[in-house]
Write a structure and sequence with these properties.
Layout lengths: L1 H15 L6 H32 L4 E6 L10 E6 H30 L3 H16 L1 H6 L31 H20 L1
Antiparallel strand pairs: 1-2
Helix pairs in contact: 1-4, 2-3, 2-4, 3-4
Length: about 190
Amino acid sequence: MILNLVLIFGIIQVLRKLDLEDPITITYIRLAYFASQLIVLAIYYVIGLKIEKSNDQTTLKYVEPAKPFTDEQPKSVRTNYRDYDREKLKEALRSALTGAGVLMAFHLYFSFTQPLAIQSIMSVKTVFQSPIAKIHILGQKAEGDLRRPWKNPNPFAFGDANQPQVDKQAIKRAEKAEKNANAKNKDD
């Protein structure tokens, strides 16, 4: 977190020395941004290849928390590491593409150039900080914080209320609640 702030402030200091109205400077910043996004996509592609190559069929059971502000109940999930990693890769890719689209819209419609320069570095850094890249690219073992299921990144959540649960009691409660809900739906 602190490293991110230092990095952002460092980039801003460099940008202050540049003429952000100069079309050539803007072109270089755009090129840097597109290059960083291509690097991100390439990293995700390599991760996808490694997931398929490893084909890890280790069973993973956990309870997915209910979505906030809904009346959904937490649901039990039974999958394997390969499918879990695939799903997390899809989420990461969707997030990266959405962020890139929004940022380009801000740049093109509102002429914001600083965010492009900042995201040129931060997007690649964010990828390497993700659990999926730490395991499949950096070769770290899936232990501790990297143990599946990974915690949901949410800077506004306090505690573990919105995190997957892996304890047996939580899984049994969720399975029982699902059975009761299914039985109730059949009766209706």
